[in-house]
Amino acid sequence: MSLSLHVLTLLAVLGTTAVQVLAAPLAQCAGYQATNVLQGDSYLVADLALASNCSLYSQDIPNLRLLVEYQTETRLHVLIEDADRNVFQVQERVLPRPSNQNVSAASAALRFNLVKSPFSFQVTRASTGEVLFDTSAAPLIFEWQYVRLRTRLPKNANLYGLGEHSDDFRLPTTNYRRTFWNAESPFIPPGQNLYGSHPVYFDHRGQAGTHGVFLLSASGMDININQTDAGDQYLEYNTIGGVLDFYFLAGPEPAAVSKQYAQVVGLPAMVPYWTLGFQQCKYGWPNVEHVAQVVANYSAAAIPLEVLWGDIDYMNAHEDFSVDPTNFPLPKMQSLVASLHANSQRYVVILDPGIHYRPDYATFQRGAQHSAFLKAADGSWYRGLQWAGEVVWPDWLAAGTQDWWTDEILAFFNNSTTGLDVDGLWTDMDEASNMCGDTTCLNGSPNPAQSPPSNPGPLKGLPDRDLFHPSYRIANHRGDISASTLYTNITNADLTSQYDTHNLYGTMMASATYTALLARRPGIRPFVLTRSTFAGTGRRAAHWFGDNASTWADYRATIRQLLAFASMHAMPMVGSDVCGFNGAAQEHMCARWAALGAFQPFFRNHADISAPSQELYRWPVVAAAARKSIDARYRLLDYLYTAMRCAARDGSPSAKPLWFVYPGDVDTYAVQTQWMLGDALLVSPVVDDDAQSVRLYLPDDLWYDFWTWEAVRGTGGSVTVDGVPWTDIPVHIRGGSIVPMRVRSANTTALVRRENFTVVVAPGVDGTARGVLYLDDGESVDVGDAWSEIGFSWDGARFDAGGVFGYRTDVVVESVVVLGGSGGPRTKTGPWGLGGEFGFVF
Ligand SMILES: *[C@@H]1O[C@H](CO)[C@@H](O)[C@H](O)[C@H]1NC(C)=O
Ligand SMILES: *[C@@H]1O[C@H](CO)[C@@H](O)[C@H](O)[C@H]1NC(C)=O
Ligand SMILES: *[C@@H]1O[C@H](CO)[C@@H](O)[C@H](O)[C@H]1NC(C)=O
Ligand SMILES: *[C@@H]1O[C@H](CO)[C@@H](O)[C@H](O)[C@H]1NC(C)=O
Ligand SMILES: *[C@@H]1O[C@H](CO)[C@@H](O)[C@H](O)[C@H]1NC(C)=O
Ligand SMILES: *[C@@H]1O[C@H](CO)[C@@H](O)[C@H](O)[C@H]1NC(C)=O
Ligand SMILES: *[C@@H]1O[C@H](CO)[C@@H](O)[C@H](O)[C@H]1NC(C)=O
Ligand SMILES: *[C@@H]1O[C@H](CO)[C@@H](O)[C@H](O)[C@H]1NC(C)=O
Ligand SMILES: *[C@@H]1O[C@H](CO)[C@@H](O)[C@H](O)[C@H]1NC(C)=O
Ligand SMILES: CC(=O)N[C@H]1CO[C@H](CO)[C@@H](O)[C@@H]1O
């Protein structure tokens, strides 16, 4: 590349205001000097003084403060903030911080080493001295609207996470940029920012352990992973604001990092049992009669349907809290929901954040009375475009918004005879996606945002920033940071700016919806599905992977997305639009996707209005694949529910990559077409277009074919499985596991819960096995003592079940099956009740 082209590119990227700041090349930036270092048993503080002005994109902040806390044995907190504490920090009410247990530095698994001049720091693993993070790679830059921090990394490091993206699971290590700016992203374009922001990465160093690095920041940013011309590997944060609020997580086992991360951002919500059933949606269903036919046709095809969804079609003129009086009239909707409920099926509908700006629309009027909307400069409501047309936007940080939102949900989704008695809510378009692509779409009518306050106050953001066109431009695929979303110069009710809170909008909407649902059915676990996410959203909501296409490429992408969300973003309840959202689903692909979806936690078929219908009964082969895989899923429902319970209790991943289980096996590090569902099942779908064979990796261990129970000795190599019918998906049970299964499947999860168990013992290489079964009522937020956690063990000759038996049930263990052995599986028949421990020699 020629020099002139390089400069031109820079100018284009930086915009016109950047010309003068280009005069200060990066190399001249001298960073900070640490002074007044004060070290206690469990903390270190220091002042950081600017060495010389850098002024790369905006003015430097002269005085910073460093706070290092040994919060737990495995968690080190490093905060670099402005000494005056004006720079925005994510509100505690949006993301409550974990408590600091003040452990002694000497006992912590991670060490902090300070270099005073120029200031840099290292984080090392105490047990080995291994350097995990080292910011001496480049001087710290901390400006009003640009913050840069670079860490050295081992060459070609094994890095994962940094969602939401559709890129390789093991991240590229050269010339790779991840941008964080929540955006509606149809077709989930590779290499671009998508709907959510999770600035946490896992760094896997093989036998030397795995650690995690979480930057608690909602700011727009680019994270560059690259090598210098000299070949030095680095990862570099480039943010347009916020502070550097790092949590270093020691692991050292990969799943330990998942748990430590969940401790920081909050444990995931426990899902209601029914949400693990199969679900169907489509945008463009024309009327309630058609929807009732879908339900009937699922039944006629003997494919269990648990949850029916309503996309925006059900609304009147796309207004929230309304039904279309012609095609989806309320009485007919109510009888649809009543008949679903009578059959133990469920109904969930969509809500959008854009509230129609129509003076006689009661929801708008009541919101206005509560001052629940974002405001423009002249005090009028800030407006934009969403499905309903010209809309105003809830300000989730305003004092009256939660009450207004809860009241709307209580009234419209009234659980008595007057309302639409839904079982969950779906928050869409919450990035927030604004169909006003630029600043003039409302017929050019001026709609300026309110002036930012001259002194917003502590942690609420620096005043006098260019909130519209910051000089450092992140690589948002939508263009400017205000493009196709809310203007970033809008002031929220708590005096923070959209510039700083943009990435929190969806998580706040999901959280407000969760709160409303809890008020509506007190004590019952709410179910919220959100498109836009941020670190910690799993505390309140589930997520689907957005609007992609009915293509084999996107079928494969779901596996990478599942792995990242479930194992690294503390969001266990995730899945894709089965058979793809955009475009025409092809028969064989849809059959494969039905089976793949059956082994991912959130399992919903959904398609766009422009896409042909793709319900699973539409093709015989797809129906057969669905029946077979849903039958298996439902027999495994309590195994899956137990995995969700583990996730909710301690952050254990509901699904994870092979290297979590075989961290020393380098051949697993890049595997992104297989996953472990829970601890025992390895799922290895056919992944090539239209193929009937799959090359799957089987680690050096004992495995059992889930369908035939045949033992398979993995050698730590790939094996080819040929002739995989369109209806099938290869699944293996890991030796050493015990898997509780229902004896039979049923048409709804409520019926599944009445079936007895068979317990499948899959002995490992050493001949032993263990497993666990969690049981409760499936819906209470607080189950009190009414839960069971039954540990199963097999020592080679004896089977035992013990643990906690608080959940009362008539369901029994009918049989115990031990796989392997020369004579094939051996079965012992009970029954054994689930009210107390039992055991026997086989
Ligand atoms: C940076 O520039 C400001 C404004 O010109 C000046 O007041 C300050 O002393 C400079 N700081 C350093 C460390 O050079
Ligand atoms: C840890 O120390 C901080 C600062 O001294 C204190 O505010 C906090 O209460 C302590 N936490 C615990 C759990 O002791
Ligand atoms: C990676 O480094 C190369 C060489 O310095 C540079 O040309 C490229 O722009 C960098 N890419 C990113 C994403 O930082
Ligand atoms: C339901 O099945 C009937 C009979 O096959 C068919 O005529 C109808 O179009 C189907 N409707 C839907 C919505 O699938
Ligand atoms: C729900 O409907 C019942 C019966 O009409 C009514 O008494 C109640 O006030 C309604 N609840 C809300 C929150 O609107
Ligand atoms: C926010 O930006 C828009 C678009 O440039 C402009 O019309 C409006 O006046 C700005 N508001 C403030 C307070 O700067
Ligand atoms: C219906 O909603 C009210 C609150 O509006 C709640 O007190 C009641 O328990 C709910 N009933 C059911 C069956 O969910
Ligand atoms: C589900 O219902 C269909 C028809 O209603 C029936 O044929 C099928 O046997 C049922 N399946 C199970 C597992 O109960
Ligand atoms: C479960 O097993 C018990 C004891 O053998 C039996 O009485 C009961 O009918 C079984 N339940 C079902 C749904 O098969
Ligand atoms: C991750 C992925 O494969 N994304 C694809 C989604 O669909 C668009 C359009 O077909 C492709 O361009 C992307 O590559």
From TrEMBL:
<dbReference type="InterPro" id="IPR025887">
    <property type="entry name" value="Glyco_hydro_31_N_dom"/>
</dbReference>
<dbReference type="GO" id="GO:0005975">
    <property type="term" value="P:carbohydrate metabolic process"/>
</dbReference>
<keyword id="KW-0732">Signal</keyword>
<dbReference type="InterPro" id="IPR011013">
    <property type="entry name" value="Gal_mutarotase_sf_dom"/>
</dbReference>
<feature type="domain" description="Glycoside hydrolase family 31 TIM barrel">
    <location>
        <begin position="268"/>
        <end position="643"/>
    </location>
</feature>
<keyword id="KW-0378">Hydrolase</keyword>
<dbReference type="InterPro" id="IPR013780">
    <property type="entry name" value="Glyco_hydro_b"/>
</dbReference>
<protein>
    <recommendedName>
        <fullName>alpha-glucosidase</fullName>
        <ecNumber>3.2.1.20</ecNumber>
    </recommendedName>
</protein>
<dbReference type="InterPro" id="IPR000322">
    <property type="entry name" value="Glyco_hydro_31_TIM"/>
</dbReference>
<feature type="domain" description="Glycosyl hydrolase family 31 C-terminal">
    <location>
        <begin position="651"/>
        <end position="739"/>
    </location>
</feature>
<keyword id="KW-0326">Glycosidase</keyword>
<dbReference type="InterPro" id="IPR017853">
    <property type="entry name" value="GH"/>
</dbReference>
<feature type="region of interest" description="Disordered">
    <location>
        <begin position="437"/>
        <end position="462"/>
    </location>
</feature>
<dbReference type="GO" id="GO:0030246">
    <property type="term" value="F:carbohydrate binding"/>
</dbReference>
<dbReference type="InterPro" id="IPR048395">
    <property type="entry name" value="Glyco_hydro_31_C"/>
</dbReference>
<dbReference type="Pfam" id="PF13802">
    <property type="entry name" value="Gal_mutarotas_2"/>
</dbReference>
<feature type="domain" description="Glycoside hydrolase family 31 N-terminal">
    <location>
        <begin position="97"/>
        <end position="222"/>
    </location>
</feature>
<dbReference type="Pfam" id="PF01055">
    <property type="entry name" value="Glyco_hydro_31_2nd"/>
</dbReference>
<comment type="similarity">
    <text>Belongs to the glycosyl hydrolase 31 family.</text>
</comment>
<feature type="signal peptide">
    <location>
        <begin position="1"/>
        <end position="23"/>
    </location>
</feature>
<dbReference type="Pfam" id="PF21365">
    <property type="entry name" value="Glyco_hydro_31_3rd"/>
</dbReference>
<dbReference type="GO" id="GO:0004558">
    <property type="term" value="F:alpha-1,4-glucosidase activity"/>
</dbReference>
